[in-house]
Every structure is written in C-alpha cells, then in structure tokens.
Amino acid sequence: MQFPDDDNGQLLQEIAEAGIDLTQLHSVDFFILFEQKPQAESFLKAISEDELAPLTQLQQCKDTGIWEVITSIKMVPDHQLLSQTEQYLESIANGHEGYGDGWGIMAPE
Fold it and tell me: Considering the entire predicted model, what is its pTM?
C-alpha cells in the first residue's frame, strides 16, 4: 500500500506495518492541546455538541501542565479523511486558543 509523503502518510505506513488493518473501522483519537483549562473546556463543550465528534475527554499532562482534549472518531483511517478531520478540529481549536497535536489509533490487544 502506498502512502503520501507527509506526516499523516508516514504514520499510516507505520500503523499498517504494525499489522493494523486500515480498511476496517477504527476509533481514531485526535489530540488538541491548550495552555489554559477554561479554553480547553470551551473547546470540549463546542466539539461535544458536534455530530462528528461526540466522544471527547479532557486531561492534564502531569509533566507539562498542558491541557489535552482527546476526540475519538470512528472511521476508516483514510489519508484524505484523516487530514480533513484534523484540519476541521484544528480550525475549531484555534478559536479557543488551542492547537492540534496529531492523531493515533490504539492497537488491539
């Protein structure tokens, strides 16, 4: 399988090489970071009401103190769809002083 030569393409290739079937539906976690908890909570409220991303959680990094919103979306991990979803979430996050920090798929146990 060929992947585009960018960060998302590289990550998809690594995931495929780890044996994860990229033709199946997966829960993809998108990570959005915030310096302040009120901005993270504001983003969390906005994105929780969105039909695209109803599953979200907020946590604070113990090492850095940065607030992280993890948005889980069930999808087939297609490069174009991942990139569009990442851009969409970041566009909302930017309005709440947040920024994207990538995405990931949890490997099945």
Answer: 0.90
